[in-house]
Inverse folding.
């Protein structure tokens, strides 16, 4: 096929000459020599099988065939240039799709503001939000199911992942209102180590953290129930099956009759963070930057 030998450089050279109707001016605009430009036009004419430009020592003019071909060549270049501009926008994270993973109970008070700001700032990025329960504390970032995640460290993420802390808060003990600790506003880790406890399913760094494993030494926790959601966890605690360890925001967003939330005074605070994989999409990095920016100006409650 003749078209197999036609390149964009041929079309761009022809359109420039046809617009300028002057080889020297066109060559200067294309940053090439006039002989090279003349050779490029001859190559295109030889490939097409007809003359595009009538040349004399004084003037350059389009032939009828050249006039017809000019419209098509311009259309091809416009489409190509448009496609490249769109590709640049996609590569810059301004257009496309982004998959956000969200661990239940994480940044409940900040996520609406973050999502609104992202939609306003990047309206051409389609954001798909998926909520993950306690069985998947990595919120899909470990399997590639998501591009960016809001979660609670520590979690087992691939090497090279980035974790940007948004907020920190105390950890609390969640106990039944029938429990001896329910009347207290504060407790110590030592008060909790011998208590039956409700845990997340599975295993891993995240589960161990909420079981206070770093405080237990050789003594294993007495796990009496596994719950994948806050609802299941709190139901088990309210029925006095055991205690659980939760972030302080649980007392605000999951408060209900039958439960008490004394603060654990000597446990490290827990974090809410936005996490990125080792090679994040530009749109994912935009989201993470915006999440950090938004949470920095929202007053802590």
């Amino acid at each position: 096929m003749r078209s197999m030998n036609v390149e964009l450089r041929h079309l761009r050279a022809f359109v420039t000459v046809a617009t300028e109707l002057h080889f020297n001016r066109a060559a200067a605009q294309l940053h090439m020599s006039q002989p090279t430009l003349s050779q490029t036009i001859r190559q295109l004419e030889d490939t097409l099988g007809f003359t595009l430009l009538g040349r004399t020592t004084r003037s350059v003019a389009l032939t009828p065939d050249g006039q017809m071909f000019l419209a098509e060549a311009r259309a091809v270049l416009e489409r190509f240039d448009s496609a490249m501009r769109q590709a640049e926008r996609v590569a810059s994270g301004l257009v496309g799709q982004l998959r956000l993973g969200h661990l239940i109970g994480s940044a409940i008070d900040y996520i609406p503001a973050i999502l609104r700001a992202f939609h306003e700032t990047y309206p051409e990025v389609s954001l798909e939000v998926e909520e993950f329960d306690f069985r998947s504390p990595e919120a899909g970032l470990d399997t590639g199911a998501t591009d960016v995640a809001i979660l609670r460290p520590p979690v087992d993420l691939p090497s090279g992942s980035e974790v940007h802390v948004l907020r920190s808060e105390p950890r609390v003990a969640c106990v039944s209102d029938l429990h001896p600790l329910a009347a207290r506003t504060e407790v110590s880790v030592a008060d909790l180590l011998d208590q039956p406890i409700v845990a997340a399913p599975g295993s891993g760094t995240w589960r161990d953290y909420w079981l206070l494993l770093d405080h237990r030494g050789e003594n294993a926790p007495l796990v009496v129930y596994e719950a994948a959601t806050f609802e299941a966890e709190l139901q088990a605690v309210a029925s006095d099956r055991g205690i659980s360890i939760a972030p302080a925001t649980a007392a605000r967003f999951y408060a209900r009759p039958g439960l008490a939330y004394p603060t654990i005074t000597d446990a490290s605070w827990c974090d809410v963070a936005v996490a990125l994989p080792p090679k994040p999409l530009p749109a994912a990095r935009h989201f993470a930057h915006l999440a950090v920016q938004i949470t920095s100006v929202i007053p802590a409650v």
Remarks:
- The mean pLDDT is 93.
- The first helix runs from residue 8 to 20.
